[in-house]
Amino acid sequence: MSCLEHPCPANAQGAAGLAFTRLVTHLLAAQCLTEPWPEDRLNDVSDGDTFDFIVVGSGTAGSIVASRLSEIEGWKVLLLEIGEDPPIESIIPNFSGSLYKSHHVWQYYTEKSNSTNRASVDQRSFWPRGRLLGGTGSINGLYHMHGSYGDYEKWQVEWKDGWEWENIKKYFKKSEKIIDPFILSKPELLKNYGTDGEFVIDKLNATYPDIADKLIKAYQEMGLTYLDDFNGDTQMGVGKMRGGIYKGKRVSTATAFLNSARDRKNLYVLKLAFVTKVLIDDKYQAKGVNVIVSPWENGHFLCI
Ligand SMILES: Cc1cc2nc3c(=O)[nH]c(=O)nc-3n(C[C@H](O)[C@H](O)[C@H](O)COP(=O)(O)OP(=O)(O)OC[C@H]3O[C@@H](n4cnc5c(N)ncnc54)[C@H](O)[C@@H]3O)c2cc1C
């Protein structure tokens, strides 16, 4: 360690110093930004195995569904995902856009229609979807909004199967852990959030907060009401969003729910597993899936 005991002044002209600084920063970031993703359990399953539940896709929905189901120790749960573990660009929120043209993303385009995307080439717009643990929640904008309560009421009226807001709200709250000090200090806002769940929600830092503040002021001048929070009684207004973020790192349903379930013996996560068919029985019930997962060309799993 003589270099530390006897440092010498670096005679760098700029580029070298910058390159070394970037290298050190990258190595440090790489160390801190790894996540304890669940291991691939292909070696623990065989073609034809049966499960209590098979979940296709470990996206925003699939990750939490598989996690909640596998809380019941007696249930054997299989989670099949065509993608892999999210790279660092997913964890650093502002870098996720760099993944849109990579193999971690399904690169879809909207179909041409006469009413949308009329200024786009071929009237189609790029519509990326995540192809990795956490799905689109591993590449999205982090914003956490419960949505409009009126939408849930409409679903409840149409289907009468428990989609009313009061019912949904308790599941949102069960999963949430709000840590934004502003919300925590305001009982009238705090009542809309959970505080003991797995999914951490905080304020989102803006790179240029003064621009955001000026925009908000401009909208207020146009007559929009300032909202302290978008998960309150109304979403009609202008304000700043909260999001799934913890200490500068993305929170997705994969980081929040799959990582904490990684040691469960009854949860089988398979990566690079492409489901090609849902097997339907004579009574039109889904009984299993066909899957391509190395080394099987056409494996299958069944539900019991
Ligand atoms: C750029 C962008 C920004 C967004 N920003 C926000 C935001 O800030 N806030 C917000 O609330 N919403 C946002 N959204 C929308 C939100 O992210 C999605 O609506 C949500 O993640 C969809 O969840 P999902 O579970 O339905 O699907 P996904 O999360 O897309 O999950 C589907 C999963 O299934 C896997 N899969 C698909 N087919 C197969 C197969 N055959 N076999 C195996 N696996 C398969 C996929 O790889 C994927 O992992 C954004 C979306 C985009 C594209």
Please tell me what the overall shape is: globular
Q: Return Rg in Å.
A: 23 Å
Cofactors and ligands = flavin-adenine dinucleotide
Mean pLDDT: 91
**Class derived from helix and strand content:** alpha/beta
Helix/strand order, N-terminal first:
HHEEHEHEEHHEHHEHEEHEEEE
The total beta strand count reads 13
- What ranges have pLDDT less than 50 throughout 5 or more consecutive residues? none
Helix content: 25-40%
The assembly state of the depicted protein chains is: single chain
Distance between the termini: 62 Å
Strand content: 15-25%
- Describe the main β-sheet briefly: 4 strands, mixed
Spatial ordering of strands, largest sheet: 1-13-12-11
Task: Outline the fold blueprint.
Elements: H1 2-5, H2 15-32, E1 50-51, E2 53-56, H3 60-69, E3 77-80, H4 88-91, E4 105-109, E5 126-130, H5 149-159, H6 165-175, E6 176-178, H7 181-184, H8 187-190, E7 199-203, H9 209-221, E8 242-246, E9 249-250, H10 253-258, E10 267-270, E11 274-280, E12 286-293, E13 296-303
Parallel strand pairs: 1-13, 2-3, 3-10, 6-7
Antiparallel strand pairs: 4-5, 7-8, 8-9, 11-12, 12-13
Flavin-adenine dinucleotide is lined by residues 56-62, 80-83, 128-131, 135-137, 140-143, 274-275.
